[in-house]
Amino acid sequence: MIVNKEIEFKTFISEDDYVNLLKEFELENNIFAQTNFYFDTEDTKLMAEKTVLRIRQKGNNFKLTKKTRAEVGADETHILLAKDKALELLANGFDAKIIELPYFVTKIAELTTYRASVPYKNGTLFLDKSVYYGHVDYEIEYEVDDVKQGTKDFNTFLDTYHIKFKESIRKSKRAYDHRN
Length: 180
Hints:
Layout: E1 2-13, H1 15-24, E2 32-40, H2 45-48, E3 51-58, E4 61-69, E5 74-81, H3 83-92, E6 94-95, E7 104-120, E8 123-132, E9 135-144, H4 147-160, H5 171-178
Antiparallel strand pairs: 1-5, 1-9, 2-3, 2-7, 3-4, 4-5, 6-7, 7-8, 8-9
């Protein structure tokens, strides 16, 4: 298992802002797709606990991730999965003890993000177009190691590109709320 701390700042943006930022940072040809498959118990215990459990697919690579809220940011635990194992978990659900959760979980939603990334100041800037159950939205994520400097840099970025902050909802919640 791999464990790390995630500190990120996010805001929804318009499609025009997304397209303009892709051009500004010359990222139009550097977009890749990743699909998140979200898991929970039948009675959504993880959602109630503000824990996200997902398998992320990038090409033929699969990673199981548990994200839990922390005092600062989120704590993430990752397990790399072989493709056949990931497909088995997606199809049948699984005992989440493998990632230190005491529940049996099944897939509850999925969302595909078309993502471009670029280094920006002291972190990494992600430009995301997310597609799920007939919905499309756009957002900026800025991942950093230091919350104080990250806050300053993120606000400077928003000011520089005249982007009004609009609080993002977690991708897992968006997908869950709009599933068929």
